[in-house]
Amino acid sequence: MNIRLALFLTMLFSITSTAPSLAAGDRYALVIGNAKYPDADAPLKEPLNDARDVADELKRDGFNVDVGENLTGEAMRRAFDRLYGKIKPGSVALIFFSGFGVQAARQSYMIPIDAQIWTEPDVRRDGFSLESVLGEINNRGAGVKIALVDASRRNPFERRFRSFSAGLAPVIAPNGTLVMYSAALSSVVSDNGGDRSLFVQELLKEIRVPGLMAEEALNRTRVGVTRASRSEQVPWISSSLAEDFAFIPGPPPGPVTDVAGRPAEPEPLAPPPRVETPPPPKLPEVALAPPAAKPEDKNDAPAPSFADDPTVKSLTARLADNPDDGNALYRRGQVYASKGAYSLALSDFTDSLRLNPKDVEAYNNRCWVRTITGDLQGALKDCNEALRLRPSFVDALDSRGLLNLKSGQVKNAIADFDAALKINPRLTSSLYGRGLAKQRNGAGPEGDLDIANAKAMDPNIVKEFASYGVR
């Protein structure tokens, strides 16, 4: 259910590690979210929520976390000094920064909220060089150094000096360093219109996989962001790690399999070729009996106004120039759905599928919207088609599990959620949904355990499902 942009998948199992790991005291993180820049037209929507979500996850993963919000230059300097003072030889040090970044003199600078930037020398004076920070961390003896930077936004500073360069610059980092930017070098991306960034959503999914090495987790994040954005946002990674490190220690994850238990083929970044293939084995399709959705299943709330939404305005302008821009239709549908404008989202996803009938992401998103609004027959057709095109598509399994749960097909819901959790064991929505389905199927204690684990990992999961009409 990847269009729920304001919702996160936070899940924590009790894991017995079979591999050596660093003690909790040997992991240190500084997490900064800067949103209120006086020079910007309005506060950024994403950094504070993203920073809080990342900090919460890192704490669960055994990091000693220092969190800073809307930090001035002096406050950022003190925060970095605190981090430097904690580091011991061989420890892990991680930096997460979300806010504005500026490239100057071929270096990337993290910008505090009170920076006074009118010339390029001002960037070096008021900003914090990522290379310098990583160099100091290395000098203190950290064995594993990780920097996660979500600062590839168009900012109000760059065009004030003639030699500006958009986006961030490649970092020259010491050995043992893993760096990830939310977008490609020297490129910028717009906020997605939600309260959280696509980059952090995908990042959190991957670092929650037990035993997954950090470099592979970030590579999967890059693939997830690239696919979800239709290649309009491609994160950048640089790695010189010399030792294995997993955010959550544990045995390496097993190979991904499809719903029939067979090894799954890697999912392509581009939509699959437009060729007809016989449907592979999949979970039983369910014919939902009439009547159609009950009136109370419909979302009758008035659609929000998008007159001032910059993302919708930008995408609508693109569509005015080219009504057959499938990527713009798909992305605008995502924004509409994330804000509860389901009829508008449904229209955009339908138009997107008219342009590309093999678009599995659009089928899944339309399945999810139809499930929320009560069109369960239409939703089932969409989810089945998405899974026919991509049998191991975890989001479609999760969506179909929800619609089976809403329709009372609890055994099929359990099968769908089981298949989704086999692919991604930390998918909280599938865990909670499976718990509800097990309860309704007479397996109360097992269902209670699933629900308790899901609620412990994501306290908002109950409210989320209630908004879908599922309690």
UniProtKB/TrEMBL annotation:
Organism: Bradyrhizobium canariense
Protein's recorded name: Tetratricopeptide repeat-containing protein
Signal peptide: 1-23
Keyword Chaperone annotated: no
Residue windows of the TPR repeats: 326-359, 394-427
Keywords, alphabetical: Signal, TPR repeat
Record SUPFAM superfamilies: Caspase-like, TPR-like
Compositional bias of kind Pro residues: 266-283
